[in-house]
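Hi both,

Apologies for the delay on this - the queue was longer than expected. I finally got the flavin-adenine dinucleotide-bound model through. Below you'll find the protein sequence and the ligand SMILES exactly as submitted, and right after that the structure tokens for the full complex including the ligand.
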Amino acid sequence: MKPAPFEYKAPATTDEAVDLLAEHGWDAKLLAGGQSLVPAMNFRLAQPAVLLDLNRIDELAYIRTVDSAEETGSTGSNVAEGDGGGGAVGLRIGAMTRQAALERSAAIAAHSPLLAAALPYIGHPQIRNRGTIGGSIAHADPAAELPAIVVALDAELTIRNSEGERRVAAAEFFQGLFSTALGPNDLLIEVDIPALPAGTGWSFQEVARRHGDYALVGVAATVRLAGDVCEAARMVFLSVGGGPVIASNAEASLVGQPLDERRIGEAARLAASEDIDPVNDIHASVAYRRHLAEVLARRALHEAGARARSGAGA
Ligand SMILES: Cc1cc2nc3c(=O)[nH]c(=O)nc-3n(C[C@H](O)[C@H](O)[C@H](O)COP(=O)(O)OP(=O)(O)OC[C@H]3O[C@@H](n4cnc5c(N)ncnc54)[C@H](O)[C@@H]3O)c2cc1C
């Protein structure tokens, strides 16, 4: 299939893109990596009158480190990889940064290993060469890895339109199936990922039928331990609801308790039975997805706990 006819515009700056969005609103679609939008256009599921190609906006492609005490490390180059100084290091990532650039980044590996662990699960290398972090988040596919990761890491998203900029917590950005806080004139420009607190372990687990397929179920988990006691826990699932699903009952069952076999088993059961809302589809039944969710939650909590204990987490 070929897409329906459209007008093509390629702004060179963020300001230009924002002005064009203000002019065209819902008639326009932003083209990032094109890995979801172009198939949708070819199937005529999307028929924008105007296509705004973001690929010439170099200023939206960067990875910057940020010292959480004093914001440093920002250099303006496309992939700037400072060490962010002495303190805990957060990351600022431009929306047009390719998934492959994140995968190759030493700064991501060092300062956001949970994000680094999830990246290879996104499709195939060819997809990640074009696909962007901003495109994946804006697209909000419930089976996508990056939306769950940014929620698990308490990231903040910066959105710009002709009125100005606003920051939205990732947990509030996703509003249902392929639905987000983005309005017709909004451009997602940056993803800010704070440093995980010291003593936090992490894990990413996923099952797909074949490597590169969308996940049947996936989960990102973090746990912070003080001795054996769990001080904070985060578990965010993908592919089991309308968007990233925070397993709040499971998380609450862990906090203040020793992270032992019994608590992990209970939390995994709670997550699978109460927190998620999977559907039957051609890929898997509800029962199978619940089974996978319980197994993956148990594995994730074990691994995150082991990393927290060994100091291999944050
Ligand atoms: C065969 C195949 C397998 C795949 N497997 C996976 C997988 O396993 N896991 C996974 O997560 N993804 C997978 N993908 C999707 C891939 O990750 C895409 O890269 C991603 O969904 C969209 O990113 P993009 O940069 O290509 O965005 P595009 O396709 O260009 O855009 C997607 C949507 O986001 C909007 N948008 C893009 N950028 C912005 C912005 N800055 N601000 C506001 N709106 C914006 C667009 O207008 C469009 O509506 C797969 C794709 C293919 C083709």
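Main takeaway for now: The chain is about 35% helix and 25% strand.

I'll put the files on the shared drive as well.

H.
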